[in-house]
Structure formats: structure tokens, C-alpha cells
Design goal:
Shape of chain A: flat
Largest sheet of chain B: 2 strands, antiparallel
Structural class of chain B: mainly alpha
Helix content of chain A: over 70%
Strand order of the largest sheet of chain A: 1-2
Strand content of chain B: under 5%
Largest sheet of chain A: 2 strands, antiparallel
CATH superfamily of the largest domain in chain A: MetI-like
Largest interface: A-B, 87 and 89 residues
Number of helices of chain B: 11
CATH architecture of the largest domain in chain A: Orthogonal Bundle
Helix content of chain B: over 70%
Oligomer: heterodimer
Radius of gyration of chain A: 30 Å
CATH superfamily of chain B: MetI-like
CATH architecture of chain B: Orthogonal Bundle
Order of helices and strands of chain A: HHHHEEHHHHHHHHHH
Strand content of chain A: under 5%
Shape of chain B: globular
Strand order of the largest sheet of chain B: 1-2
Number of domains of chain A: 2
Number of helices of chain A: 14
CATH topology of chain B: MetI-like fold
Number of strands of chain A: 2
Radius of gyration of chain B: 23 Å
Order of helices and strands of chain B: HHEEHHHHHHHHH
Distance between the termini of chain B: 46 Å
Structural class of chain A: mainly alpha
């Protein structure tokens, strides 16, 4: 067998040598050249694509670098402790005070309010869309919810000013409708699409067998949903809620337009308050470059970035673990 | 309560929770449409603002938003698609790709106002572009980069491995395969992602507030280093900063902004639905 193959190959060689004319060898050379050219362009393209590939790492690194390099200059004039534990934010008073606590609390109140509203509604809608609604309704609902996420935040803020703040003022008998509650309701609407679509994906991605096995055991659809599907998809749902919290913390324009922006420590949702994001957006225009006030806004940005990064990484961790566990 | 009534009750609750999301969304859109449609005419869309923006049109804001969108596409699209090609076609799965994915994920969660700070620090001040279209477009490009990378990556992954193998077996190089086989098949998905990203960029206010937007500019921009007015920022200032602003102009501006975003959204949704149907057939 081996010998046979050897002789076959030998024959082939002889045959090709006979056929090789001058013209053919010329062609061969040309081929080789274009091959080199191809290889060179392949090499260059590969390098370019590699650079584009790591662009997101570079941008993220630059974001951290620029925020930290500017924010850190604040600590020439005050200590990190004073900044992180200070209970008064008043850049216009003398001496200036840059305590981040009122802003962090403003953000946390709004986020807590938004989550209280959006989590039950969001999870309920996700269950309805993935398990209860007929296919056509399901598609329509998904489009509407995606559109909700596409509405610019400034438009929601505008509606907050012209409609929602009046409702809040009248229904709670307040002197002003620009409260943390107004902000929470609007931010809940911005967090809802995230919560719904991530939870919906998590429930839809469950193996068919879960559903079928439960129904075959005689459980109703309701029992199947609440005792089998929702517990099985819980990691995905938790991740959706975390990402929703991340969105709520980072929301800027809406809260800036409807919360009244009083930079003091809030004690109820019916008071005015100011978030970290709104502070950066509204005060940056008035600052003098390279002043303590300017640097302090970057320092607030760092606090904000750290909070959202931790939440996003945690959400990713939960999702990854769910994916591994699912298999 | 027996099983059936319990189930009916629970589904009723779920239905009403969904209605709590859907009905306000439709009401919001309808409200702005009804209140704003009366203001929309050719003059409103094509004239300069007059009388401290209380009269006339919003043309400079529309044009500014248009310029910003073009700039954002120019930067974000090559970068985002290139990045996705690297992740799906070239990179070996390992530490580096894990890092890139984490970076993309993190970028997606960075608040828009932080992008504004970054754009102010890097483009406006450090690179000396000043408050300009260039600085704003670059900032918005960074903002939508994660959206474009994620959707493009999904689109590239959905191209069947058979196509790549067949092309390579015919002697095409890797780049020829990507350029002529993989990209055409992934195009609808990539375009959908790009359009959604651009729609997002068109409606963002906080980043342009810090990097480009002008309160009021009596003339149109002449170069990429000029400031511009932009629709989202314009809506913000006329609804909060300018006293005695006529309601009609506010609703009109909100409707134009919502309209532009809706057009992007509608195109993206249509492409996606058609693509899905074609895949099924």
C-alpha cells in the first residue's frame, strides 16, 4: 500500500516536470508576487483591526485617566475625607464647601424611589411579555418598550415639567412639584426598558423542557411561571434590575429638570434634591477652569463612575454565573 | 380560591402592570404629537430664531444636530465595526478579549454626563478643539461605541461558519473573506445597530452640554471648530432657562426631536423585522 502511494507520487512529479513550460513558470512567479502583496496587505489590515479592537480599552482607560487627573487636583485644597464625608455642598459660599454627601444622598433617594416603582412593574411586564401575551401582542409590546428606551431624556424631563410636576404638586398638596418623587417616577420610566428586556431575555432563554415538564405534571401556567420559570431565570432578572439601577444612577437631564436642584440632605421623597449627575451638568458651565470648583465636579464624576462600574460589573458577574449554571 | 381563578387573577395583575408601562408611553408620545403638531410648519423648521428664541424657527438647532450626527457616524462606525471584526474574526479567545468585553460592558454603563466630563477634559481642553462640533461628535462617538460594537459583534457571529470555510477553501485570504463574504451577510444587523446608536446620540443632552452646545448662536457654523446649537440642548434651555417662552415653541421643538429619534428607530425596527423574516424563510 505504502509503496503504491510512493510510486504514484513519483509519477505525478515526472508528469508535472514535463508540463512546466517557460510561460507557466512566469505565471507562477507572478502568482508569488501577488501572494506577497496579499500577505503584506493582510498583515497591515490585521494590525489596523487590532488597534481598532482595543479602542474600547483605550477609551475606558482615558476616561478614568482624565477624570482622576483632574479630580485629584481638588485634594490640593481639601482632603479626600472632607470631600467624601462633607455634608454641605456650597461652591458659592466663602469658604467654598465641597462635601459630596448631599449629592450622593440625592442620587440614592431618586434611585431608591425609581427602583421601588420600576422593579415590580418591570418584572411583571417581563413575565407578561415572555409567557402570557400571544405572539403578535408580544412583538408589539416589545417594540413599544424599545421605543420608550429611545425617547430622549430631555423630552421626558420636559414632560415632567409641564405635566408630572403639576400632578405631584396637586396630589400631595405641595408648594412646588419639583421633588425627588417627580424625578423618581421619570427615572423609573428610563430604567424600565432595561429591566424588562433583560428579564424577558432571561425567561425566554430557559429550556423548553422546564415549561413542558411542569405543565405535564399538572401544574397550571400560573404555577409553572411562579414556581419554575421565575426562580430559574432569577439570575437574569437580578442582573436586569442591577443594570436598571445603573441607568437610574447615571440619568442626568430628567432629574436636573424636575427635582428642584436644592443641594441639601433630603429626608423625604417629597422634598427637592440634587443628584451627582445634575450637579456636574448644571454647574460646569459656571466654573472657572482649573479652580477648586472645576476640579470638584471631576471628583464627583469619579464617585459616579465608580458606583456605576461596580454595579455593572456585578450585573455581568451574575449573568455570567447564570450562563455557566444554565449549562 | 381555586386554581383557575387564582391564575386569572395573577394574569390580570400582570396585564395591568404591563399596561402601566405601555399606556403612559403611548400617552406621552400622543400628548407631544397633539400639542406640537400645530407649531410645525416650513417656517418653524427652516427659519432662524428671533426675539430671544421666542419667535421664528429652530433651523440652527436642527442643522447642529444633523452635523453632530454626521460627525458621530464618521468616528463611531469604523471604530465600532473594526472592533467587532477584531473580536469575532481575529482575536483568540483569552485574556485580552475578556478585557475588551469588560471594557465595552463598562463603557455601556458609564453615565452620559461622565462622557461629557471626559470630552471636556480630553477633546475640548487637552487637545484644544474648544467647544466645537469636532469635540461634541468625538464625545458622542465614544458614547455610542459600545452599542455599535455589541450589535455588530452579534451580527458577525450570526454569519454561518460554512461561508467563511468555503471562501477560505477557494483560496481567498482572511481579509478577502471578511470583506466579501462575512460583512455583506452581517450588514443588516450592523446597520440596525448603527442606526439605534445614532438615534441615541441624536437625543443625548448632557455630553453636548459640556462639549459643544451653544445657548444661542445667531449664525450657522462654518467649520468643525465652531459651536452649534443642538435640538436636545435647545429643548432644555427653552423649557428651563428662558422666561416667558411660548408653549407652542416648546412642544414644537420636543416634537421635532422626538420625530427625528422616531425616524431612526422606525428604520432600525423595519430592517430588523425584514431581516428576521428573510432568515426564517
Amino acid at each position: 500500500m505504502k509503496q503504491q502511494m510512493y510510486s504514484l507520487r513519483k509519477e505525478e512529479k515526472v508528469y508535472s516536470q514535463e508540463e512546466e513550460t517557460l510561460e507557466e513558470s512566469f505565471k507562477h512567479e507572478k502568482n508569488l508576487k501577488s501572494n506577497y502583496k496579499n500577505r503584506l496587505s493582510e498583515f497591515i489590515i490585521e494590525k489596523i483591526i487590532f488597534v481598532l479592537g482595543i479602542a474600547s480599552i483605550l477609551i475606558l482607560a482615558l476616561i478614568f485617566a482624565f477624570l482622576i487627573s483632574s479630580g485629584i487636583s481638588l485634594f490640593d485644597t481639601m482632603t479626600i475625607g472632607e470631600f467624601l464625608t462633607g455634608t454641605s455642598w456650597s461652591p458659592r459660599s466663602t469658604p467654598q464647601r465641597f462635601g459630596v454627601i448631599p449629592l450622593v444622598l440625592g442620587t440614592l433617594w431618586i434611585t431608591a424611589g425609581a427602583i421601588l416603582i420600576s422593579v415590580p412593574i418591570g418584572i411583571g411586564s417581563a413575565i407578561f411579555i415572555s409567557e402570557v401575551a400571544p405572539p403578535k401582542t408580544r412583538t408589539a409590546l416589545k417594540v413599544i418598550i424599545e421605543f420608550l428606551s429611545a425617547i430622549p431624556s430631555v423630552v421626558l424631563g420636559f414632560l415632567g415639567i409641564v405635566v408630572l410636576s403639576n400632578w405631584v404638586r396637586l396630589s400631595f398638596n405641595l408648594s412646588s412639584g419639583f421633588t425627588l418623587l417627580t424625578g423618581s417616577i421619570l427615572v423609573a420610566f428610563m430604567a424600565l426598558p432595561t429591566i424588562i428586556s433583560v428579564s424577558d431575555d432571561a425567561i425566554t432563554a430557559l429550556p423548553k423542557e422546564y415549561r413542558e415538564a411542569s405543565l405535564a405534571l399538572g401544574a397550571t401556567r400560573f404555577e409553572t411561571i411562579f414556581h419554575v420559570l421565575v426562580p430559574a431565570a432569577s439570575s437574569g432578572i437580578i442582573a436586569g434590575v442591577m443594570l436598571g439601577i445603573g441607568r437610574a444612577i447615571g440619568e442626568t437631564m430628567t432629574v436636573m429638570m424636575v427635582t428642584g436642584n436644592a443641594a441639601r440632605i433630603p429626608t423625604s421623597l417629597l422634598q427637592s434634591g440634587r443628584t451627582m449627575t445634575a450637579t456636574i451638568a448644571s454647574e460646569m458651565g459656571d466654573t472657572v477652569r482649573q479652580s477648586a470648583h472645576y476640579y470638584s465636579l471631576f471628583a464627583v464624576g469619579i464617585v459616579l463612575l465608580i458606583m456605576t462600574s461596580v454595579i455593572n460589573l456585578f450585573a455581568d458577574y451574575v449573568l455570567q454565573r447564570a450562563r455557566k449554571g444554565g449549562k | 380560591m381555586n386554581k383557575r381563578t387564582k391564575e386569572k387573577f395573577a394574569f390580570g395583575v400582570l396585564t395591568s402592570l404591563t399596561a402601566l408601562v405601555v399606556i403612559p408611553t403611548i400617552l406621552m408620545i400622543g400628548f407631544i404629537f397633539v400639542k406640537g403638531i400645530g407649531t410645525i410648519n416650513w417656517e418653524f423648521l427652516s427659519a432662524m430664531p428671533r426675539q430671544g428664541m421666542r419667535e421664528g424657527g429652530i433651523f440652527p438647532s436642527i442643522l447642529g444636530t444633523f452635523y453632530l450626527i454626521i460627525g458621530t457616524i464618521l468616528f463611531a462606525l469604523p471604530l465600532g465595526i473594526g472592533s467587532a471584526i477584531y473580536l469575532t474574526e481575529y482575536a483568540k479567545q483569552g485574556f485580552l478579549t475578556r478585557m475588551i468585553r469588560l471594557a465595552v460592558l463598562n463603557l455601556a454603563g458609564v453615565p452620559s454626563v461622565v462622557y461629557g466630563l471626559f470630552g471636556l477634559g480630553l477633546f475640548v481642553l487637552f487637545l484644544g478643539f474648544g467647544s466645537s462640533i469636532l469635540a461634541g461628535a468625538l464625545t458622542l462617538a465614544c458614547l455610542i461605541l459600545p452599542i455599535i460594537i455589541t450589535t455588530s459583534e452579534e451580527a458577525l457571529k450570526s454569519v454561518h461558519q460554512k461561508y467563511r470555510d468555503a471562501s477560505l477553501a477557494l483560496g481567498a485570504t482572511k481579509w478577502q473573506t471578511i470583506r466579501h463574504v462575512v460583512l455583506p451577510h452581517a450588514a443588516p444587523g450592523i446597520i440596525t445597530g448603527a442606526i439605534l446608536g445614532i438615534g441615541r446620540a441624536a437625543g443625548e443632552t448632557a455630553p453636548i452640554l459640556l462639549t459643544v452646545a451653544a445657548f444661542f448662536l445667531p449664525r450657522l457654523p462654518r467649520s468643525v471648530f465652531d459651536q452649534v446649537m443642538a435640538l436636545p440642548y435647545h429643548l432644555y434651555i427653552i423649557s428651563t432657562q428662558v422666561p416667558n417662552m411660548p408653549e407652542s415653541i416648546k412642544y414644537g421643538t420636543a416634537l421635532v426631536l422626538l420625530g427625528i429619534v422616531s425616524i431612526f428607530f422606525a428604520i432600525a425596527t423595519l430592517i430588523r423585522i425584514r431581516f428576521k423574516m428573510a432568515n426564517r424563510a
